[in-house]
Design goal:
mainly alpha, Multidrug-efflux Transporter Regulator, Chain: A, Domain 2, two-stranded antiparallel ribbon, 6 helices, 3% strand, DNA-binding, transcription, repressor, MerR family transcriptional regulator
Length: 148
Amino acid sequence: MTYSIGTVAEKSGISIYTLRYYDKMGLTPFVKRNEASGRREFTDSDLNFLSVITCLKGTGMPLNEIRNFVQCCMDGDNTLNQRLALFENQKEVVINQIGESLRNLQKIDHKIEYYKKAVKAGTEKAVTGKNNLPENHVPLNELIDELL
């Protein structure tokens, strides 16, 4: 079964503009075009590939690196090691992002508690000196270990 660009936009959540941009940037060489009309014809396999592209983009991978990954896929099995390395490296990037987000979440949680106490007391002076991370602060490596 094939899908039009509009249907793919609806199914994937990727705008038509972005799908066309991806094509222009060389991210979708796997998408065939109708010989008569020149329109893109997406398959279920193409939708799956687009979901991987969306995933990588969502982790902050630059489009040029995603394009390299796509090219490796197009080049076949002789690039399996490169693709594995790419995903292993990106996993580390995501783990670091999660760690940073968890550190920020801890700080935000602490500030929420700080301001709850200040609101309850009617003044920030009542909680002065308690602005450091709380005693029950969980070390980052423990939080990451729980995720993995």
